[in-house]
Amino acid sequence: MKHTLLSILCAILFLSAQAKEGMWVPTLLDKYTIEEMHQMGFKLSADDIYSINENSMKDAVVIFGKGCTGEMISDEGLLLTNHHCGFSSIQSHSSVEHDYLTNGFWAKSKDEELSNPDLTAKFLERMEDVTDSVLVGTMDLKGIELEDKIEQNIYAIQRIASDSGRFEAVVKPLYYGNQYFLYLYKVYKDVRLVGAPPSSIGKFGGDTDNWMWPRHTGDFSVFRVYAGENNEPAEYSPDNVPYHPKKHFTLSTNGIKPNDFVMVLGYPGSTQEYLSSFAVDLIMNQSDPDKVRIRTKKLEILADHMENDPAVRIQYASKYARTSNSWKRWQGEVKGLRRLDAIAVKQQFEEKFKQWYSSSDSLQELYGDVLPQLEKLHMDLYAFERAYNYYKEIVFGGIDILDFSSNFPRSTRGWDRASEFRRDLYRKNLRDNLDDFFKDYNRETDEEVFVELLRLLKKDLARSFLPESFIEMMQKYDDEKLLKKVYQKSVLSDQVKLTAMVDDLNLRNIKKIHKDPVYVLYSDLRAHYLRNVELVYTSINKEIEKQQKIYMMGILSMLEGKERLYPDANFTFRIAYGKVEGYQPGDAVSYLYYTTLKGVMEKDDPDIYDYDVPQKLRDLYETKNFGEYATDNYMPLAFTASVHTTGGNSGSPAINANGELIGLNFDRCWEGTMSDIMFDPDQCRNIMLDIRYVLFIIDKFADAGYLLDEMNIVN
Q1: Where does residue 571 fall: left (phi above 0), alpha (psi -120 to 50 degrees), or beta otherwise?
Q2: Half-sphere exposure of 81 (CA within 13 A, CB side)
């Protein structure tokens, strides 16, 4: 057992000749990493990936929206990302009369492209290590004084670097605050929808196939970035013109084969590879299972209502997808961590850590107390972690009407003191939020979610974590009365009445809202949460962060010169690389590295929305009208590789050894979702859409071949 644990540990924490673990900061690439990439077939240099002085791949990769990656594929601002990344934009333009989710959308000219308020594309100008500047003047500080000084230094760095608002400047910590980097972005705010396949292609397989392999989802959408004068960022205007990027990718239709080099560039969101065994125990045995339990109940309700009403299906499509995505991932994460015996592996590493610091008095003084402190803090956190997750999943995001309650002013004092200009601005913002809310709201659906999730909140949380008024209400009312006395009496569920109040928002109407039964319920829950959950939860986690920083510093010191360690993902620009390969998820099961259109036809089922293949796609398959995109008379669709990715890498470009775009990253295999915490080279695979399938759909299915004229395509 000891040999097995040590073998797994090496595969988990460090990059070896076999495992392609790691999300690497381009400016920190060492010669060993580049040499390994070259040995695997990569033909370019580090400067081709990231350079300040010359155009490089980083100039063709963007932060798309608030949590995805996209890439430039033409000199006319054409941007490619995932269908699920563009999903909310596609949904916002959809209605029962113009159901772009079901039928797809393709602009036949630039004039038909659809604008998307609040959607942005952020281009990285540069990054730099600013650790010394962040920590200047902190040598003798501790506690809150240290935190305040670091915040002041970061603010000053960001303010100066932003160049009076020309750039968005962000300083982020690496290695739990043992290093700091500055990132400068140009933010383009006019991003228009160009095209999206129907959900029967872009979301084929729905939530059943999500995170799974083999996969047959054509998960892509196309947008265009627009600019103002001098190619600079500008607010939306019909006078804006297509943005001309510093670099855009060449698309390769040469295909892929086993062991081909693959590199993924983008903005991975969050990983936690260096957690202690105590943190992993909390995630495996409480946090993930709690969140899965709540979301399971919600998803059952949403699915039932969406299936029975096409309008509800459109309204809740994006909400369902967001809820389901992490729900399924958490289940895979727990399963994978159990399979790897993750707690024992972490404990084994902690024993090595203890042996290391015990070798000298100075190391003992620095690190001797860190693991006992982490153990105690996580024990203290257990009950508050559960309460935190239940409130977040139910009160502050699970029930639409409760979450919507947060938009209204909690005090009349601020309204009294506000100028009329401020009041008008508040009314306008509130009205916009109101319109957005009711567009994607169905009362009957939310009523059922309201009852079921509040029952779960009452049942699963200790009494001390709930306000007495809530406990009394839940004991006093059955489900029918709960709806009648609270939900159905609320003006927040009545669009007509609420709109009239908001349009004429004044002190009297604010007081009426404060007496509204749903608002009262939300206020009571929120107040109790802030006093009895969040304060303690935040306090414990701050202490955990301090100890984790010390622990990380010790790991870096212990392994300096021995192993290459990458910082956890934090939604900043990274590269990851590996090779094209399948995997074996279980006994007697072996997966190929690719799927084809044939698999779509094998899953075709007109009676199931997520598997109802469009007739035109059936016809193209039957006639083998694949154009130049087929290989040996079959139409490639998706492929897998051993590249370390996570959330945020959705939409990331998959690049071959020549630096050409061969695919579009969109998922991971379910058996490898624990890679955010523990990487397994045998099971962790990223899933990518073959660029040939993207071109095939645009050209042959959507009849939008004019878009291909903008692209550089090599064969």
Answers
A1: left
A2: 34
Element holding 448 (H helix, E strand): helix 443-460
Q: For the whole model, what pTM was predicted? A: 0.90
Q: Map residue 489 onto helix, strand or coil.
A: coil
Catalytic residue among 88, 405, 523, 650: 650
**Catalytic one among 219, 281, 516, 699?**
219
> Which amino acid makes up residue 658?
N
Rounded (5°) CA angle 203-207-213: 85
**DSSP 3-state assignment of 502?**
helix
**What are the tokens at 685?**
């695979």
Instruction: Enter the tokens of residue 259.
Output: 């062991």
Concatenating the DSSP letter of every residue in 537-598 gives HHHHHHHHHHHHHHHHHHHHHHHTTT---PPPP-SS-EEEEEEB--EEEETTEEE-SEEEHH
Q: Give me the catalytic one of 83, 84, 305, 644.
A: 84
Check: CB of residue 610 under 8 Å from CB of residue 204.
Answer: yes
| Range of weakest confidence among 84-93, 327-336, 407-416, 491-500 | 407-416
What is the rounded CA–CA span in Å between residue 30 and residue 568? 17
Distance from C-alpha of 585 to C-alpha of 419, rounded to nearest angstrom: 63
Catalytic residue check, 650? yes
For 359-368, the CB contacts below 8 A with 24+ separation are 363/554, 366/550, 366/554, 367/550, 367/551, 367/554
pLDDT digits (tens, 9 = 90+) for 435-478: 889 999 999 999 999 999 999 999 999 999 999 999 999 999 99
